[in-house]
Every structure is written in C-alpha cells, then in structure tokens.
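Would you mind writing out the residues of a protein together with its fold in token form for me to study?
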Amino acid sequence: MNRTERHPLRHHPRVTAGSLAAFLLFALLAAALTPSASASPQLWQRCGPTAPAGQRCSAPLGVAADPTNGHVFLADQGNHRVLEYSPLGEFAKAWGWDVVASGPDNDIAPPQDQFEICVPEEGDICKAGTLGSSGSGQFNTPIGVAVDSSGSVYVADYDANRVQKFNRHGEFQLMFGGKVNKTKVGEREAEEASSEPVTVGEGEENLCPFDPGDECGAGCRGPARDSSAQSRSVTSSLSPRATRSTSATRAASSASTPPVPTRAHARCRER
C-alpha cells in the first residue's frame, strides 16, 4: 500500500477543509444553544411586583390554558377577577366587576362599575375588581379555572357557591350552583305560597340564566357531609364508659337540633 492509499483524505484537500469548517461551525452553534449548567431557570413572573400596578395578581390559585391558542387564564383570588395572558406571558385582559380604572371599556352607564373586561391594547387601564356575589361575572374568592375544547372558561367562585362560565373573549355566558337563578326561586316560592302546583323544576333554579332576563346571584351551600359512620367507628374503639357518654351527648344534640327542612321549605344559605 502506497502513501496515498494510507492517507486517502490527502487526495481531496478541498473536500476535507470544507468538511472541517462545517463541523467547527456546527460545534460552535451547539455550544451557543446549550444552556449553561450553572445558569438558573427563568421563572414566569408576569403578575408579580414588577408588573404594572393594574396587572399584578394577589394570591392566585387556579391556572388553565386554552388548548387551541395557548392563552393562559389565572384566577386572581385577592383581586376578585380573572387574568388572561398570551402564550409568551404578555398581559392580555382582565375581567370581573369594576376592573377598568379608565378607558373605553369603563362601565359608566347606571348602574355603573358592574361587569367589565379590561383590555390594555384598547386603551384601558386595569385595576382590582370589587368583591361580591350578587351579580353575573362578579367574584367572591375565585379559586379554580378550567378551559374546554371550545375555549370556554369556567371559574370556581368559592364563596359565592357557584361556577361561572365565560366565552373565550371573557364575556359572561351562564352560571350554575344551588339556587343561583333568583328569578326561578322567586317563582317557585310564589307558587308554593298560593298553594298552586309547583311548575318550577330544581334544574331551572340551579342554572342561570335559564330564560332570557333571569336574575342571577350567589348559590346555596350544600348539605354538610354525614359523619355518623365516622363517629361510630371512633366510638367503637373507646371504653364502655366513654362510649355511653358520647352516645348520650349525640342523643342530646339530636334532640335539640331541628329537623332539616324539606326542599319545599328550604331557604338558601349563602356564605
């Protein structure tokens, strides 16, 4: 074997130089794109103290993303509103009662400062919303958010005992929860008071609006969980004397507690 055969690359010096240059360029690009092991990850802090005053969040709890466009929705619990961000974390809008400090979307028509959608791109200046449970789109401790495949946003309004639904633009659609439809509750109570046949169904009371023009409001608290089974399991492990004492206490408590009213006579217990 001659010298040329032992070193085949020397036979094509131009090809070898080009390949070497390409390899070096690739290595430099890979090194530039590879994060340093010592570099800390960049956390998303769009609603923190460095954000503009009207775009900061307070005690956020729930977060969800729209599967169609990547927009992120945040339950801003302490500010009684919902915040929306772009996929890159840019503030897009906020909605709730009285969330616009000034701008074209400020609700100035009587009764003013109710449900508003604040959009900075349209010239709005945002602020914290007003706490409450009385109206549509008003929040009282929003703690959870979910987004369905069509982009509708659902907000768990904890202290208002209801779930509110909005479209992808933040516009109120409906709510559901125990007796949130105050119009239907009033119609049912009027039928009961006049001894007329009750035509209002429970489903109509728990969805608002059921008919156009229905007045919506806070829901009712659900019944407390029955803990009798748990009490029996606890007292079974006690001594006979302790068991007799616990049983007597429970019996006295039952005797002094009025019976749970039936649905026809139940009244809404709001938080």
